[in-house]
Write a structure and sequence with these properties.
Layout: H1 2-17, H2 25-31, H3 47-60, E1 93-98, H4 103-108, E2 122-128, E3 138-141, E4 145-149, E5 154-158, E6 169-173, E7 178-184, H5 190-193
Antiparallel strand pairs: 1-2, 2-7, 3-4, 4-5, 6-7
GO biological process, one term: flagellated sperm motility
Domain PIH1D1/2/3 CS-like: 90-185
GO molecular function, one term: dynein intermediate chain binding
Amino acid sequence: MDALSSIQSVQALSALLSPPAEETDDEDYENMKPMARMGPSHIGATPSTRGKAQETVSSAYIKEHNKDIWDVEEVNEGTHFDDLTDCRPQPEYEIVLKQRVGTEDLFLGLSRKDPSSMCCESMLVKVKLSDTKAADIVLDVKETFLDLRTPKYKLGLHLPHPVHSEEGTARFISERAELEVTLPMNRALDCINLA
């Protein structure tokens, strides 16, 4: 009896999985609208229109044939500080991201701070300036660019994060001949990440 019921269940399963012979997918495919027949190969322009599109783009956007990745107009801040005729070397520098962490953050995890750079409050730029006096340093900080000039060195540094340039502090440590510039970071989501 069990053998008979298992054969019937297999036949019932076969009837469910295979459609009857009268119904075919070809008829359904022929009755579909043209947009429903499209597949992954139809994405993008057809080969006949691709050449025309490239011709219109090349005629609308005429660029000099050089190896530049961007135009000078696209890079606005800090480019006027780059002086190619100035042969002074770039000093060694290091960028350190800092955050204030208390015991409740370290041991209990009460705040939402984590070790990522999104939870850092400030950026410390350390620049080694050997044979330099504090009076010889000219420092200009913009939102995303730091410009440092001395008689011996020049540094034009694009900062990895925007900063509050007016609220930064700088100190020169003469024992190590090192300038430390601390800049508070200015990001759109600081009110969420640092709350």
